[in-house]
Amino acid sequence: AKRVRVHHLREMKERGEPWPMLTAYDTFTASIFDEAGIPVLLVGDSASNTVYGNDTSLPVTVDELIPLVRAVTRSVKRSLVVADLPFGSYQVSVEQAVATAVRFMKEGQAHAVKLEGGSYFAPHIRAITAAGIPVMAHIGFTPQSEHQLGGYRVQGRHENHDTVVRDALAVQEAGAFAVVLEMVTAEVAKQITHDLVIPTVGIGAGPDTDAQVLVWQDMMGLNRGKAPRFVKRYADIGNIMLGAATEFANEVRGHQFPGPEHTFH
Ligand code: KIV
Ligand code: NA
Predict the structure, then answer these.
(1) What's the number of domains the chain is made of?
(2) 114 is in an annotated binding site
(3) What are the DSSP calls for 124-161, one per residue?
(4) Is residue 174 within 8 Å of 122, Cβ to Cβ?
(5) 182 catalytic, yes or no?
């Protein structure tokens, strides 16, 4: 199978073919999603929640994410692997942003990086791209800024409509190969998708973006808690695991496991 490259994503936009993207953080999930033909896998800073058990994305560090990125890149044959730059690892300066992106490429062997931010981060995107590293931007609701944005709120309504559109144009102009639109109105997402030549990747951004991304534990129900409205549950892995663990426990307690077929003499 041929590796997915950033130009393939652009070509799918030109052909009007929507494409899927999922998060992945370990070897088995990465190889399953690769086999399923998911062209882009994101090792998101959502690992802060989904792997490390924090309640926001803010605490996760570069040193915690790099081993996950390496596990995913090692495990795919075809998918393009994007590494998310965590909070604090690129906001300080353009130089810091390039140095962090280089670590993800060198130590994590990522194929691209992603960062949250619009116009203000255009110089960072331009510098990382100039270093030979493809950048996916992320605008609209940006979870690393939740305290500044006032919580999980839909963006692109009323007063910040122009900000989201301006951010989209700025990250394209800075050289981003794609842009995530998170929790923006379907109307704004549709307009941005029409105006940009680079692919838009929606999450809670309606049906008209060029691609759709979800966090895999949310869409497969490993996360058994409440999921946001934009998540569709495609499986119920959480309850399958609960059932298997419970049955194992019962069989051990009831002297039913191991049976003769699991036993050496
Ligand atoms: O960290 C993440 O999982 C993300 C996606 C939801 C876009 O940024
Ligand atoms: Na993220």
Answers:
(1) 2
(2) yes
(3) HHHHHHHTT--EEEEEES-GGGHHHHTSS--BSSGGGH
(4) yes
(5) yes
Instruction: Please report which confidence band the pLDDT of residue 12 belongs to, taking 50, 70 and 90 as the band edges.
Output: very high
pLDDT at 159 over 70: no
Q: How far apart are CA 255 and CA 243, in angstroms?
A: 18
Residue 58: how many other CB atoms lie within 10 Å: 16
Query: pTM for the whole thing?
Result: 0.97
Tell whether 164 and 250 lie within a shared domain: no
Ligand 1 atom 1: residue of nearest CA: 44
Q: For residue 174, what are the β-bridge partners? A: none
Look up the domain containing 257 and give its range: 237-265
Question: Using 50, 70 and 90 to split pLDDT, how confident is the model at 225?
Answer: confident
Q: Rounded mean pLDDT of the chain?
A: 97
Same domain for 245 and 114: no
Model pLDDT, residue 120? 98
- Choose the catalytic residue: 182, 187, 251, 261: 182
Question: Which ligand 1 atom sits closest to the C-alpha of 116?
Answer: 8
Does one domain contain both 143 and 252? no
Specify the amino acid at residue 70: R
